[in-house]
Amino acid sequence: MSRKNELLARVYIVMTFFVFLSIWIIGKVFYVNVIEGDKWKSKISANVKWKVIEGDRGNIYASDGNILAASSPLFDVRLDLLAPSDANFSKNIDSLSFLISKYIRPDKSAGQWKAELTNGRKGGIAGTKKGMRYYLLKRNVKYEEFMKMKNFPLLRLGQVRGGFIVERKTSRIKPFQEMAGRTIGLNRENSDNIGIEGAYDQYLKGEVIKSLMKKMPGGYWLPMEDIDNISLNRGADIITNLDIKIQDVVHEEMLKKLNQTHSEAGVAIVMEVKTGKILAMTNLSKQSDGSYQEVQNYAIAEKYAPGSVMKIATALALLEDGYMDSEDLVDVENGRKNFRGNIVRDDENIGKGKPITFKNAIVHSSNVAMAKLADEFYNRDSISKAHFIEDLHGFGLGLLSGIDIEGEVEPYIKDPVKNKVDWHLNTIPWMAHGYEIEFTPIQLLTFSMLLLIMVK
Questions:
Q1: Cα dihedral value 313, 318, 322, 325, nearest 10
Q2: What is the pLDDT of residues 262-310, one digit of tens each?
Q3: Angle between helices 309-320 and 367-378 (to 10 degrees)
Q4: Rounded CA gap, 303 and 437, in Å?
Q5: Confidence of residue 128 (pLDDT cuts 50, 70, 90)
């Protein structure tokens, strides 16, 4: 029995030891993860981080196949001079130095490159006793040049054995520069993309992955895997309706006119009426140095009083509602009429004191005729006012154009109920000839297209 008791005692002692050991381990894990969790997480985050790597964006093409925007990969090439073994470094340094001098950095001879890289390995550059692990060989290396470098002695061994460190980035190129710049848009890192770049970003952007980076002495970040060996899918290409020949003519003519008139800004849009395709779009504004550049897409982001275009909508309403016929006469009162203390004028005295046909009032774009007729038929009571507003909305004037580019602002048509504070006795006649309402150029163009379709 004594022998049995002795064995049991030993078993209990061992079990007790492991129980307390398990409790201690669990307690330590709890202490490290919960009590000191923030402390260790901060240390990890200070020395390890994730870097987002994106594949090349797709190209944007004009309708004729010309490239409007394309991605050009660039590489910053660095060397970890401590990564190669002594044998690999000694074996390849002469040929590597020769090729760098001949093809990559001819600013130094092969002998100078050998001395600099050797000193860097020993710590002879920038006073580093341990040797350089992040030596910058060249920035913004183009793709063709980079592919050649990949086969250089030592560098072809990769990051781990050869110290070949690659930081990949992408430059977005516009071959036609400013032309249709805001329409094509911008691909930006720290803010939303705009134009076609923004509208089709989900298709244009390439595959996105994350690469783990570690912090090295001196504050440098190195990838923990060989990024050069990562193959990412590029984004899809986009073919637009823009016609580069028409765009070129529109851009140059707009630029010429702005320089002649010294205007602050100008907008020009060319639309194919049958389909609604936008063939060209130019937005130019004066800069502080007097030049004109595309800095904002006024065609979709700015609204203005439409002026004479609105008289077409007024005439169409009068015809559709049966208030006027093309041969009906209207007195334009010598091109000048007083509306409750406010004067509306025509640019010319169309009738010379005699009534003119409604058709001639449209042809000569008479402010007086449209304001007078709208005041007579649509300014009588709340029902007639509301009916005029309904007509305008029925013509599509209250709608967005539907263009794919983001940033289009809502049109503004006064409403006698919703905008009661801003509504006054002369609102109807003023709206009738193009004031107290606002549309963007693309919305007015869309209305004109719909008008032509309705006329046909």
A1: -100
A2: 999 999 999 998 888 999 999 999 999 999 999 889 999 999 999 999 9
A3: 40
A4: 9
A5: very low
Give 239's strand partners. 61
- 319 conformational bin, left if phi > 0, alpha if psi -120 to 50, beta if neither: alpha
CA angle 157, 160, 165 (to 5 degrees): 85
Binned at pLDDT 50, 70 and 90, residue 43 comes out as: low
- Tokens matching residue 379: 């300014």
Number of H helices, E strands in the chain: 17, 17
Nearest Cα to 21, choosing from 79, 52, 29?
Answer: 29
- In the block, which residue shows the tokens 């194919």? 272
Distance, CA of 280 to CA of 449 (rounded, Å): 15
Q: What 3-state DSSP class applies to 431?
A: helix
Contact status, residue 117 vs residue 131, Cβ threshold 8 Å: no
Percentage of residues of the chain with pLDDT beyond 90: 51
Q: What is the DSSP secondary structure assignment for residue 238, as one 8-state letter?
A: E
Q: What pairs with residue 338 in β-bridges?
A: 343
Contact 48, 55 (CB under 8 A): no
pTM: predicted TM-score of the whole model, two decimal places: 0.72
Intra-chain end-to-end CA distance of the chain, in Å: 115
Distances (CA, A) of 131 to 126, 135, 159, 226, 341: 9, 10, 16, 21, 87
- Containing H/E element for 342? strand 342-345
Q: What is the dihedral of CA 150, 155, 160, 165, to 10 degrees?
A: -70
Q: What angle do CA 374, 378, 381 make, to 5 degrees?
A: 145
* Spatial CB neighbours of 419, under 8 Å, sequence gap ≥ 6: none
Question: DSSP assignment of 180-210, as one string?
Answer: THHHH-B--SSS--BHHHHHTHHHHS--EEE
For residues 437 and 300, give the distance between their C-alpha atoms in angstroms, rounded to a whole number: 16
